[in-house]
Specification:
By secondary structure, the chain is α+β, with helices and mostly antiparallel strands. Helix content is 28%, strand content 30%. Strands 1-2-6-10-9-8-7 form a 7-stranded mixed beta sheet, sandwiched between helices. It has a 3-stranded mixed beta sheet with strand order 4-3-5, with no helix packed on it. Strand 8 and strand 9 form a beta hairpin. Helix 3 packs across helix 5. It starts with a strand and ends in a 7-residue tail after the last helix.
């Protein structure tokens, strides 16, 4: 099953990208290839369906957008790769839990290539480095197809995370790849993006159940 990998240029407006994901999901059919969208957003807080207002502490000049993914509030901004997974789960024989697991495994794989030991947590989706969150994820499934996806902190200003309870967890510390590595080994954004696309594509292909095997 084909997977198309797309890079959206520049800083992609959040609402426009969200509407594009919804339109893609609503118009796709059984023959539509799955797509992975890699992009960065301008500074924005997004509040998931389960989001509680008390977790948005002091947004200041950063807009807060209510969205239809799972989870609580998080932050997107330049220096963070966002990867959206537009996947026909029924066609691939995958459940939502399996998709979450393969996303986390893909992120762990990318971090390991840079010498960073990341791991998921059973009680809170995402990937963590020594207890600090380095990647978040949130999904929506409609008509058996997923959209939304993951955000990996590479080299971004972490101050906005102090304005919220990240993912609804008071006091949760957030980190980035740059903070986990010495300055001489700071990762190049483009290289990390390429690695992230490749890792998620590989994870999806490896996890797919062939139609005849169901």
């Amino acid at each position: 099953m084909d997977i198309l990998c797309r890079r959206l240029p520049g800083a992609a407006d959040y609402l426009a990208t969200l509407e594009a994901m919804k339109a893609f999901t609503d118009s796709r059919d059984a023959a539509t290839p799955d797509e992975l969208w890699l992009l960065q957003h301008p500074r924005v807080f997004t509040q998931g369906q389960a989001g509680k207002a008390e977790h948005v502490l002091a947004p200041g000049d950063i807009p807060v957008i209510q969205v239809d993914r799972g989870g609580q509030v998080t932050y997107h901004g330049p220096g963070q790769w966002v990867l959206y997974l537009l996947v026909d789960l029924r066609r691939r024989g995958l459940g939502v839990r399996q998709l979450v697991t393969l996303i986390e495994q893909g992120i762990v794989q990318v971090l390991a290539a840079y010498g960073i030991e990341g791991a998921p947590r059973a009680d809170a989706p995402g990937v963590y480095v020594q207890g600090d969150k380095i990647a978040s994820l949130g999904l929506r499934v409609r008509r058996g197809c997923s959209y939304h996806g993951l955000a990996l902190n590479v080299d971004l200003d972490l101050e906005p995370f102090l304005r919220i309870n990240p993912c609804g967890h008071q006091g949760l510390r957030v980190t980035s790849m740059v903070q986990c590595l010495p300055e001489a080994r700071a990762p190049a954004m483009e290289d990390v993006g390429d690695a992230l696309l490749e890792a998620l594509r590989e994870q999806l292909e490896a996890a797919t159940i062939a139609p005849g095997a169901r």
